[in-house]
TrEMBL record:
It comes from the Bacteria. It holds the Pfam family HDOD. This is EAL domain-containing protein. SUPFAM superfamilies: EAL domain-like, HD-domain/PDEase-like. Residues 224-414 form the HDOD domain.
Amino acid sequence: MGTATEAAQRPAEGQAEADQAGYVRYPARAPIVDGDCLLRGFELHLRELPVAEGDEADVRKATDAAAAHLLAALGASDVRTALSGHPGYLNVSRPLLFSDAIARLKPDRFFLEISPTIGVDPELTARLVTLHARRYRFVIDDLRQPDEAFAKLLPYAHAIKIDPARHDPELLQRLSKALKSAGKLLIALNVETHEAFERAKSLHFDLFQGFFFARGSKQSARRINAPRQALINLLRLLSSDPSVAQLEAELKLNPVLVMHLMRLANSGEASIGRKVATLRDAINATGTNRIARWTQLLLYADGRKVPLEEDPLVQLAATRARFMEIASSRLAATSRKVVDGAFLTGVFSLVDAVFGDTLENTLEALTLASHIRAAILHREGQLGTLLSAIESLERGDWEALDRASAALAPLTSCDLAQIAITAAAWASTADQSKENEGLERIEE
Protein backbone atom coordinates (compact mmCIF):
# COMPACT_ATOMS: atom_id res chain seq x y z
CA MET A 1 0.00 0.00 0.00
CA GLY A 2 2.20 2.75 -1.28
CA THR A 3 2.14 6.51 -1.23
CA ALA A 4 -0.02 8.65 -3.51
CA THR A 5 0.81 8.00 -7.11
CA GLU A 6 1.90 10.69 -9.50
CA ALA A 7 -1.32 10.25 -11.44
CA ALA A 8 -3.36 10.84 -8.32
CA GLN A 9 -1.41 13.99 -7.50
CA ARG A 10 -2.04 15.84 -10.75
CA PRO A 11 -5.43 17.10 -11.96
CA ALA A 12 -7.18 14.86 -14.46
CA GLU A 13 -7.57 15.98 -18.05
CA GLY A 14 -10.52 18.34 -18.29
CA GLN A 15 -10.35 19.31 -14.61
CA ALA A 16 -9.85 22.97 -15.49
CA GLU A 17 -13.06 22.98 -17.50
CA ALA A 18 -14.92 21.43 -14.57
CA ASP A 19 -13.62 24.10 -12.21
CA GLN A 20 -14.62 26.87 -14.59
CA ALA A 21 -18.09 25.41 -15.03
CA GLY A 22 -18.57 25.68 -11.30
CA TYR A 23 -19.58 22.15 -10.45
CA VAL A 24 -17.91 19.05 -9.06
CA ARG A 25 -17.33 16.75 -11.98
CA TYR A 26 -16.59 13.57 -10.06
CA PRO A 27 -19.36 11.65 -8.27
CA ALA A 28 -19.50 10.75 -4.61
CA ARG A 29 -19.94 7.04 -3.82
CA ALA A 30 -22.33 5.58 -1.22
CA PRO A 31 -22.85 1.84 -0.61
CA ILE A 32 -25.94 -0.24 -1.33
CA VAL A 33 -25.96 -3.65 0.38
CA ASP A 34 -28.10 -6.78 0.49
CA GLY A 35 -29.61 -8.59 3.45
CA ASP A 36 -26.28 -10.27 4.21
CA CYS A 37 -24.54 -6.85 4.34
CA LEU A 38 -22.58 -7.51 1.17
CA LEU A 39 -22.09 -4.78 -1.41
CA ARG A 40 -24.45 -4.93 -4.36
CA GLY A 41 -24.05 -1.44 -5.84
CA PHE A 42 -23.17 2.19 -5.22
CA GLU A 43 -25.24 5.34 -5.31
CA LEU A 44 -23.28 7.89 -7.34
CA HIS A 45 -24.13 11.39 -6.15
CA LEU A 46 -23.70 14.05 -8.84
CA ARG A 47 -23.67 17.74 -8.15
CA GLU A 48 -26.44 19.71 -9.82
CA LEU A 49 -25.59 21.04 -13.27
CA PRO A 50 -25.06 24.80 -13.32
CA VAL A 51 -28.06 26.84 -14.45
CA ALA A 52 -27.28 28.42 -17.81
CA GLU A 53 -28.64 31.78 -18.90
CA GLY A 54 -29.62 33.09 -22.33
CA ASP A 55 -32.11 32.07 -25.00
CA GLU A 56 -33.42 28.53 -25.27
CA ALA A 57 -30.83 27.40 -27.83
CA ASP A 58 -27.93 28.76 -25.76
CA VAL A 59 -29.28 27.17 -22.58
CA ARG A 60 -29.66 23.79 -24.31
CA LYS A 61 -26.14 24.03 -25.74
CA ALA A 62 -24.62 24.97 -22.38
CA THR A 63 -26.54 22.22 -20.59
CA ASP A 64 -25.46 19.60 -23.11
CA ALA A 65 -21.83 20.68 -22.80
CA ALA A 66 -21.96 20.48 -19.01
CA ALA A 67 -23.73 17.11 -19.15
CA ALA A 68 -21.14 15.77 -21.57
CA HIS A 69 -18.30 16.70 -19.18
CA LEU A 70 -20.16 15.20 -16.24
CA LEU A 71 -21.10 11.95 -17.94
CA ALA A 72 -17.65 11.57 -19.48
CA ALA A 73 -16.24 11.46 -15.96
CA LEU A 74 -18.45 8.45 -15.21
CA GLY A 75 -16.62 6.55 -17.93
CA ALA A 76 -13.21 7.34 -16.45
CA SER A 77 -11.15 4.33 -15.40
CA ASP A 78 -11.12 5.31 -11.71
CA VAL A 79 -14.92 5.49 -11.60
CA ARG A 80 -15.24 2.11 -13.31
CA THR A 81 -12.75 0.60 -10.88
CA ALA A 82 -14.46 2.25 -7.89
CA LEU A 83 -17.65 0.40 -8.79
CA SER A 84 -15.67 -2.88 -8.50
CA GLY A 85 -18.01 -4.68 -10.85
CA HIS A 86 -21.16 -3.47 -9.09
CA PRO A 87 -23.81 -1.29 -10.76
CA GLY A 88 -23.87 2.44 -10.19
CA TYR A 89 -27.18 4.05 -9.21
CA LEU A 90 -27.17 7.48 -10.83
CA ASN A 91 -29.67 10.21 -9.99
CA VAL A 92 -30.50 12.01 -13.22
CA SER A 93 -32.23 15.37 -13.53
CA ARG A 94 -34.60 16.16 -16.37
CA PRO A 95 -31.95 18.10 -18.37
CA LEU A 96 -29.50 15.21 -17.93
CA LEU A 97 -32.14 12.66 -18.98
CA PHE A 98 -32.87 14.57 -22.18
CA SER A 99 -29.24 15.29 -23.00
CA ASP A 100 -27.74 13.42 -25.95
CA ALA A 101 -24.71 12.85 -23.73
CA ILE A 102 -26.60 10.17 -21.82
CA ALA A 103 -25.57 7.80 -24.60
CA ARG A 104 -22.11 7.85 -22.96
CA LEU A 105 -23.51 5.69 -20.14
CA LYS A 106 -23.45 1.94 -20.69
CA PRO A 107 -26.91 0.53 -19.88
CA ASP A 108 -25.50 -2.58 -18.19
CA ARG A 109 -23.36 -0.53 -15.80
CA PHE A 110 -25.80 2.07 -14.46
CA PHE A 111 -29.32 2.35 -13.12
CA LEU A 112 -30.90 5.75 -13.83
CA GLU A 113 -32.75 7.14 -10.83
CA ILE A 114 -35.66 9.46 -11.50
CA SER A 115 -37.65 11.39 -8.93
CA PRO A 116 -41.47 11.10 -8.90
CA THR A 117 -41.47 14.92 -8.89
CA ILE A 118 -39.61 15.13 -12.21
CA GLY A 119 -42.79 16.16 -14.06
CA VAL A 120 -44.40 13.27 -15.92
CA ASP A 121 -45.68 14.60 -19.25
CA PRO A 122 -45.91 13.10 -22.77
CA GLU A 123 -42.39 14.35 -23.60
CA LEU A 124 -40.89 12.58 -20.58
CA THR A 125 -42.85 9.40 -21.25
CA ALA A 126 -41.60 9.33 -24.85
CA ARG A 127 -38.03 9.77 -23.63
CA LEU A 128 -38.40 6.90 -21.16
CA VAL A 129 -39.81 4.66 -23.88
CA THR A 130 -36.84 5.47 -26.13
CA LEU A 131 -34.25 4.84 -23.42
CA HIS A 132 -36.04 1.75 -22.15
CA ALA A 133 -35.86 0.31 -25.67
CA ARG A 134 -32.10 0.85 -25.52
CA ARG A 135 -32.02 -1.32 -22.37
CA TYR A 136 -31.56 1.52 -19.86
CA ARG A 137 -32.94 0.57 -16.44
CA PHE A 138 -34.78 3.02 -14.21
CA VAL A 139 -35.22 3.35 -10.46
CA ILE A 140 -37.93 5.51 -8.91
CA ASP A 141 -36.10 7.44 -6.21
CA ASP A 142 -37.50 8.24 -2.76
CA LEU A 143 -41.15 7.41 -3.28
CA ARG A 144 -43.25 9.57 -0.94
CA GLN A 145 -46.75 9.00 -2.29
CA PRO A 146 -48.06 6.32 -4.69
CA ASP A 147 -49.89 8.93 -6.77
CA GLU A 148 -50.72 9.33 -10.48
CA ALA A 149 -47.18 10.41 -11.40
CA PHE A 150 -45.80 7.31 -9.72
CA ALA A 151 -48.29 5.09 -11.57
CA LYS A 152 -47.11 6.53 -14.91
CA LEU A 153 -43.45 5.88 -14.06
CA LEU A 154 -43.96 2.39 -12.62
CA PRO A 155 -44.07 0.43 -15.93
CA TYR A 156 -40.51 1.56 -16.71
CA ALA A 157 -39.09 1.01 -13.21
CA HIS A 158 -36.80 -1.87 -12.36
CA ALA A 159 -36.66 -0.88 -8.69
CA ILE A 160 -38.28 1.50 -6.20
CA LYS A 161 -36.42 3.35 -3.44
CA ILE A 162 -38.43 4.02 -0.28
CA ASP A 163 -37.51 5.51 3.08
CA PRO A 164 -39.42 3.23 5.51
CA ALA A 165 -39.33 5.88 8.26
CA ARG A 166 -41.45 8.24 6.13
CA HIS A 167 -44.40 5.86 5.76
CA ASP A 168 -47.11 4.46 7.99
CA PRO A 169 -46.12 0.83 8.75
CA GLU A 170 -49.48 -0.58 7.66
CA LEU A 171 -49.47 1.36 4.37
CA LEU A 172 -45.85 0.41 3.78
CA GLN A 173 -46.61 -3.28 4.26
CA ARG A 174 -49.42 -3.15 1.69
CA LEU A 175 -47.28 -1.11 -0.73
CA SER A 176 -44.33 -3.45 -0.32
CA LYS A 177 -46.50 -6.50 -1.02
CA ALA A 178 -48.02 -4.92 -4.13
CA LEU A 179 -44.68 -3.84 -5.59
CA LYS A 180 -43.05 -7.20 -4.89
CA SER A 181 -45.94 -9.01 -6.61
CA ALA A 182 -45.35 -6.70 -9.60
CA GLY A 183 -41.77 -7.94 -9.77
CA LYS A 184 -40.14 -4.73 -8.58
CA LEU A 185 -36.95 -4.62 -6.54
CA LEU A 186 -37.32 -2.70 -3.26
CA ILE A 187 -34.47 -0.57 -1.91
CA ALA A 188 -34.69 0.88 1.61
CA LEU A 189 -33.28 4.40 1.98
CA ASN A 190 -31.58 6.07 4.96
CA VAL A 191 -30.95 2.86 6.89
CA GLU A 192 -28.67 4.22 9.60
CA THR A 193 -29.23 1.81 12.52
CA HIS A 194 -29.26 -1.95 12.95
CA GLU A 195 -32.87 -1.70 14.13
CA ALA A 196 -33.91 0.11 10.94
CA PHE A 197 -32.11 -2.55 8.90
CA GLU A 198 -33.96 -5.40 10.61
CA ARG A 199 -37.28 -3.58 10.25
CA ALA A 200 -36.74 -3.09 6.50
CA LYS A 201 -35.74 -6.74 6.12
CA SER A 202 -38.99 -7.80 7.81
CA LEU A 203 -40.87 -5.79 5.16
CA HIS A 204 -39.09 -7.81 2.44
CA PHE A 205 -36.87 -5.05 1.09
CA ASP A 206 -34.16 -6.46 -1.19
CA LEU A 207 -31.41 -3.86 -0.87
CA PHE A 208 -30.46 -1.27 1.73
CA GLN A 209 -28.83 2.14 1.46
CA GLY A 210 -27.26 3.73 4.53
CA PHE A 211 -24.36 3.34 6.95
CA PHE A 212 -25.86 1.11 9.65
CA PHE A 213 -23.01 -1.38 9.11
CA ALA A 214 -20.48 1.30 10.12
CA ARG A 215 -22.26 2.37 13.32
CA GLY A 216 -20.78 1.10 16.56
CA SER A 217 -23.22 -0.84 18.73
CA LYS A 218 -23.00 -4.05 20.70
CA GLN A 219 -25.82 -5.46 18.63
CA SER A 220 -24.09 -5.00 15.27
CA ALA A 221 -20.42 -5.16 16.27
CA ARG A 222 -18.20 -7.67 14.54
CA ARG A 223 -17.05 -10.44 16.80
CA ILE A 224 -13.81 -9.86 18.70
CA ASN A 225 -12.07 -13.18 18.18
CA ALA A 226 -8.59 -14.31 19.15
CA PRO A 227 -6.97 -13.29 15.82
CA ARG A 228 -8.51 -9.81 16.09
CA GLN A 229 -7.17 -9.39 19.63
CA ALA A 230 -3.77 -10.40 18.27
CA LEU A 231 -4.12 -7.68 15.64
CA ILE A 232 -4.83 -5.11 18.35
CA ASN A 233 -1.74 -6.17 20.28
CA LEU A 234 0.29 -5.99 17.09
CA LEU A 235 -1.01 -2.50 16.30
CA ARG A 236 -0.09 -1.27 19.77
CA LEU A 237 3.43 -2.59 19.29
CA LEU A 238 3.74 -1.10 15.79
CA SER A 239 2.80 2.34 17.16
CA SER A 240 5.90 2.29 19.36
CA ASP A 241 8.42 1.87 16.50
CA PRO A 242 9.48 -1.65 17.50
CA SER A 243 12.68 -3.45 16.62
CA VAL A 244 12.56 -6.42 14.26
CA ALA A 245 13.19 -8.72 17.25
CA GLN A 246 10.21 -7.26 19.16
CA LEU A 247 7.96 -7.55 16.11
CA GLU A 248 9.09 -11.11 15.49
CA ALA A 249 8.33 -12.09 19.10
CA GLU A 250 4.82 -10.59 18.96
CA LEU A 251 3.97 -12.22 15.65
CA LYS A 252 5.12 -15.62 16.87
CA LEU A 253 2.33 -15.54 19.46
CA ASN A 254 -0.22 -16.02 16.67
CA PRO A 255 0.50 -18.51 13.86
CA VAL A 256 -2.39 -17.17 11.74
CA LEU A 257 -0.74 -13.74 11.51
CA VAL A 258 2.59 -15.37 10.64
CA MET A 259 0.89 -17.21 7.78
CA HIS A 260 -0.63 -13.99 6.44
CA LEU A 261 2.66 -12.12 6.73
CA MET A 262 4.60 -14.82 4.88
CA ARG A 263 2.09 -14.64 2.03
CA LEU A 264 2.32 -10.86 2.01
CA ALA A 265 6.13 -10.90 1.98
CA ASN A 266 6.33 -13.43 -0.85
CA SER A 267 3.95 -11.36 -3.00
CA GLY A 268 5.98 -8.15 -2.82
CA GLU A 269 8.73 -6.74 -5.00
CA ALA A 270 11.24 -7.32 -2.21
CA SER A 271 10.86 -11.07 -2.69
CA ILE A 272 11.74 -11.06 -6.40
CA GLY A 273 14.56 -13.51 -7.05
CA ARG A 274 14.31 -15.24 -3.69
CA LYS A 275 11.70 -16.95 -1.58
CA VAL A 276 11.14 -15.46 1.86
CA ALA A 277 11.55 -18.42 4.21
CA THR A 278 11.86 -17.00 7.72
CA LEU A 279 9.67 -14.66 9.76
CA ARG A 280 12.55 -12.21 10.25
CA ASP A 281 13.14 -12.08 6.48
CA ALA A 282 9.40 -11.55 5.95
CA ILE A 283 9.40 -8.58 8.32
CA ASN A 284 12.43 -7.03 6.61
CA ALA A 285 11.03 -7.68 3.11
CA THR A 286 7.61 -6.23 3.90
CA GLY A 287 8.55 -3.29 6.11
CA THR A 288 6.81 -2.12 9.26
CA ASN A 289 4.79 0.56 7.45
CA ARG A 290 3.18 -1.93 5.10
CA ILE A 291 2.65 -4.44 7.90
CA ALA A 292 0.87 -1.74 9.89
CA ARG A 293 -1.50 -0.87 7.05
CA TRP A 294 -2.22 -4.51 6.30
CA THR A 295 -2.98 -5.06 9.99
CA GLN A 296 -5.27 -2.03 10.18
CA LEU A 297 -7.46 -3.23 7.31
CA LEU A 298 -7.50 -6.84 8.53
CA LEU A 299 -8.98 -5.50 11.76
CA TYR A 300 -12.23 -4.78 9.91
CA ALA A 301 -12.60 -8.28 8.49
CA ASP A 302 -15.39 -10.22 10.19
CA GLY A 303 -14.36 -13.77 9.39
CA ARG A 304 -16.65 -14.32 6.41
CA LYS A 305 -14.77 -15.66 3.41
CA VAL A 306 -15.93 -13.04 0.92
CA PRO A 307 -13.81 -10.75 -1.30
CA LEU A 308 -12.78 -7.43 0.21
CA GLU A 309 -14.56 -5.57 -2.58
CA GLU A 310 -17.90 -6.95 -1.33
CA ASP A 311 -17.42 -5.94 2.31
CA PRO A 312 -18.88 -2.44 2.78
CA LEU A 313 -17.06 -1.71 6.05
CA VAL A 314 -13.64 -2.69 4.70
CA GLN A 315 -14.35 -0.61 1.59
CA LEU A 316 -15.42 2.41 3.62
CA ALA A 317 -12.41 2.26 5.95
CA ALA A 318 -9.93 1.69 3.12
CA THR A 319 -11.41 4.51 1.02
CA ARG A 320 -11.31 6.97 3.93
CA ALA A 321 -7.71 6.03 4.75
CA ARG A 322 -6.47 6.33 1.16
CA PHE A 323 -8.36 9.60 0.65
CA MET A 324 -6.76 11.07 3.77
CA GLU A 325 -3.33 9.91 2.64
CA ILE A 326 -3.53 11.32 -0.89
CA ALA A 327 -5.19 14.60 0.12
CA SER A 328 -2.71 15.28 2.93
CA SER A 329 0.21 14.64 0.58
CA ARG A 330 -1.05 17.45 -1.67
CA LEU A 331 -1.22 20.03 1.11
CA ALA A 332 1.66 22.33 1.97
CA ALA A 333 4.41 21.31 4.39
CA THR A 334 3.45 17.66 4.71
CA SER A 335 5.96 15.01 5.70
CA ARG A 336 5.89 11.23 5.51
CA LYS A 337 4.89 11.20 9.18
CA VAL A 338 1.94 13.52 8.51
CA VAL A 339 0.77 11.40 5.56
CA ASP A 340 1.00 8.22 7.63
CA GLY A 341 -0.99 9.93 10.38
CA ALA A 342 -3.64 10.86 7.84
CA PHE A 343 -3.99 7.24 6.72
CA LEU A 344 -4.26 6.17 10.36
CA THR A 345 -6.96 8.79 11.02
CA GLY A 346 -9.07 7.55 8.13
CA VAL A 347 -8.75 3.86 8.87
CA PHE A 348 -9.57 4.21 12.59
CA SER A 349 -12.43 6.69 12.18
CA LEU A 350 -14.81 3.69 11.99
CA VAL A 351 -13.19 1.41 14.53
CA ASP A 352 -16.12 1.53 16.98
CA ALA A 353 -18.09 -0.53 14.44
CA VAL A 354 -15.66 -3.38 15.07
CA PHE A 355 -15.89 -3.47 18.85
CA GLY A 356 -19.29 -2.03 19.74
CA ASP A 357 -17.80 0.13 22.50
CA THR A 358 -17.78 3.92 22.41
CA LEU A 359 -15.40 5.52 19.95
CA GLU A 360 -13.61 7.30 22.82
CA ASN A 361 -12.90 4.06 24.68
CA THR A 362 -11.82 2.21 21.56
CA LEU A 363 -9.40 4.93 20.46
CA GLU A 364 -7.97 5.14 23.97
CA ALA A 365 -7.33 1.39 23.96
CA LEU A 366 -5.46 1.70 20.66
CA THR A 367 -3.13 4.37 22.16
CA LEU A 368 -3.38 6.66 19.14
CA ALA A 369 -1.65 10.05 19.16
CA SER A 370 -3.68 12.85 20.73
CA HIS A 371 -4.01 14.88 17.50
CA ILE A 372 -5.35 11.80 15.67
CA ARG A 373 -7.88 11.15 18.44
CA ALA A 374 -8.89 14.83 18.35
CA ALA A 375 -9.39 14.64 14.58
CA ILE A 376 -11.60 11.55 14.85
CA LEU A 377 -13.58 12.56 17.92
CA HIS A 378 -13.94 16.32 17.39
CA ARG A 379 -12.87 16.93 13.76
CA GLU A 380 -10.06 19.16 15.02
CA GLY A 381 -7.08 20.31 12.99
CA GLN A 382 -6.27 19.65 9.36
CA LEU A 383 -6.85 15.92 9.75
CA GLY A 384 -10.28 16.62 11.22
CA THR A 385 -11.14 18.85 8.26
CA LEU A 386 -10.04 16.16 5.81
CA LEU A 387 -12.20 13.64 7.64
CA SER A 388 -15.16 16.03 7.41
CA ALA A 389 -14.50 16.35 3.67
CA ILE A 390 -14.64 12.60 2.98
CA GLU A 391 -17.76 12.27 5.17
CA SER A 392 -19.48 15.00 3.16
CA LEU A 393 -18.62 13.12 -0.03
CA GLU A 394 -20.05 9.90 1.39
CA ARG A 395 -23.33 11.75 1.95
CA GLY A 396 -23.20 13.73 -1.28
CA ASP A 397 -23.36 16.93 0.79
CA TRP A 398 -21.77 19.40 -1.61
CA GLU A 399 -22.22 22.47 0.59
CA ALA A 400 -20.37 20.76 3.44
CA LEU A 401 -17.64 19.79 0.97
CA ASP A 402 -17.31 23.43 -0.10
CA ARG A 403 -16.91 24.48 3.54
CA ALA A 404 -14.21 21.88 4.10
CA SER A 405 -12.33 22.74 0.92
CA ALA A 406 -12.24 26.43 1.92
CA ALA A 407 -9.94 25.39 4.79
CA LEU A 408 -7.86 23.02 2.66
CA ALA A 409 -6.33 25.35 0.06
CA PRO A 410 -5.08 24.76 -2.55
CA LEU A 411 -7.41 21.75 -2.77
CA THR A 412 -10.78 22.60 -4.30
CA SER A 413 -14.05 20.71 -4.02
CA CYS A 414 -13.34 19.27 -7.47
CA ASP A 415 -9.91 18.08 -6.32
CA LEU A 416 -11.35 16.43 -3.22
CA ALA A 417 -14.07 14.63 -5.19
CA GLN A 418 -11.48 13.37 -7.67
CA ILE A 419 -9.22 12.15 -4.85
CA ALA A 420 -12.16 10.32 -3.25
CA ILE A 421 -12.85 8.41 -6.46
CA THR A 422 -9.15 7.58 -6.80
CA ALA A 423 -9.19 6.31 -3.22
CA ALA A 424 -12.33 4.25 -3.85
CA ALA A 425 -10.69 2.68 -6.89
CA TRP A 426 -7.68 1.74 -4.77
CA ALA A 427 -9.91 0.23 -2.08
CA SER A 428 -11.87 -1.76 -4.65
CA THR A 429 -8.73 -3.48 -5.94
CA ALA A 430 -6.94 -3.99 -2.61
CA ASP A 431 -7.77 -7.69 -2.69
CA GLN A 432 -6.62 -8.17 -6.28
CA SER A 433 -3.43 -6.20 -6.94
CA LYS A 434 0.00 -7.74 -6.52
CA GLU A 435 0.94 -4.96 -4.15
CA ASN A 436 -1.72 -6.01 -1.70
CA GLU A 437 -1.77 -9.80 -1.96
CA GLY A 438 -1.95 -11.16 1.54
CA LEU A 439 -4.97 -9.11 2.63
CA GLU A 440 -6.84 -12.36 3.14
CA ARG A 441 -9.54 -12.73 5.71
CA ILE A 442 -8.67 -13.85 9.20
CA GLU A 443 -9.58 -17.47 9.85
CA GLU A 444 -11.87 -18.00 12.83
